[in-house]
Amino acid sequence: MDFALSPDAVAYRNLVRTIIADTVTNEAIDEIHRTGTFDLPALNFALAKHGLLERAVPGMGKGDPIELWILFNELEKAGAPYDGIAVSLMIAGVVNAVGTEEQKQRIIPSIVTGEAGVCMGYSEPDYGSDVASIVTRAVRDGDSWIINGAKMWTTMAHVAKWLILLTRTDPDLPKHRGLTMFILPMDTPGITVKPVHTMASEHTNATWYDDVTVGDEAVLGEVNGGWRTMTVALAFERGVMGGTNQGVPLLTHFTKWAQHVGLAQDPAVKVEMAKAAIDMHVSTLLTQRAAWIAASGGLPGLEGSMAKLFATEAYQREARALQHVAAQPGLLGFHEDGAAAEGFIDYDARHSPVTTIYGGTSEIQRNNIAERHLGLPRNR
């Protein structure tokens, strides 16, 4: 593969950097961490104004997966909020891939203009990574579907316009085959949203669905074909669309702090900084590989698993090591006197374990790699 960026890709990257510099202010970052909502409308609208959201939607042809990787790589390196953008663009790509023409016309424009966000209803209180075992039901009633159940970790549900919701529609079929995906407005009657605040400062949500009634226009993909629809989404999510370079702002914050307090030239500290830099470079190359496969017409599900597994566990490893070097100041949070790197060391130490869970746990990624790449038997 060729790691060099084309002149157009370099120009795209420079424009993204300019937009980030203009919109992602220190005040905005402080507010995001205060509220736990990792989304910045000013950034979204600025990217949309230049057509960068539309260009980044997987499969739409306005850009390509290399630009998609560039966008999220720059957002990550800057420590900019991208949770809302990532989910929205991913689901726009799913609608583009498996949705009807009516769905494409009704849903995608609201996303690429920065107007509407999307949240995902996959996991349930009793079924986290074992998504195929969900019990939220959608029952046919004449021309409608009636949905009842509950979901957990529905991040952005409190600000999103659209919801992509995985349900069980045929309990008599094998669990992977009796699922159907829906996409519907969050203001549909019967949806309840309650906040869940996490150790990573993130505001996620628990959601309930009580006799939520929708028509066939809300079915995304085929009836009882929801597993395939979700697989398309996961192929976009893992590796290419963020989550693989979060150690870069950690290292940036740590380095500035270490220089300020006189630790940056300590040989032991330099070793830890070098390890973190190497890990992030490997993460970048693995993610570029997934993006290149997608740009060449493939679906980088396995390669995305490799990138996601390595990058998130490296991030967690780096956060622990640099917090250890920072000692007591590394345990202090935002706005606490004497906090290392203004509290970002503490934040990354709390945030990094979460990244090994969402988007598929490390165990699931290892199973994917073992079974599909190494040819090992299933362990479940």
Summary, kept brief:
This protein has 380 residues and is an alpha+beta fold. The protein has helices spanning 7-23, 26-35, 41-49, 52-56, 65-77, 83-98, 101-112, 226-237, 247-261, 267-295, 301-326, 344-355, 362-373, and strands spanning 118-121, 137-141, 144-152, 162-168, 179-185, 191-197, 203-215. It starts with 6 loop residues before the first helix and ends in a 7-residue tail after the last helix.
3D structure, described in words:
This protein has 380 residues and is an alpha+beta fold. The chain has three domains: 111 residues, Acyl-CoA dehydrogenase/oxidase, N-terminal domain (Butyryl-Coa Dehydrogenase, subunit A, domain 1), CATH 1.10.540; 106 residues, Butyryl-CoA Dehydrogenase, subunit A, domain 2 (Beta Barrel); 136 residues, Up-down Bundle (Butyryl-CoA Dehydrogenase, subunit A, domain 3). Helix 10 packs antiparallel against helix 11 and helix 11 runs antiparallel to helix 12. It is globular and about 70 Å long. The mean pLDDT is 91.
Q: Which CATH architecture of the largest domain is right?
A: Up-down Bundle
**Mean of all residue-level pLDDT scores:** 91
Structural class: alpha+beta
Overall number of structural domains: 3
**Form type:** globular
**Strand order within the widest beta sheet:** 2-3-7-6
Largest sheet: 4 strands, antiparallel
- Beta-strand fraction estimate: 5-15%
Question: What is the CATH fold-level name of the largest domain?
Answer: Butyryl-CoA Dehydrogenase, subunit A, domain 3
Number of helical stretches of at least 4 residues = 13
Helix content: 40-55%
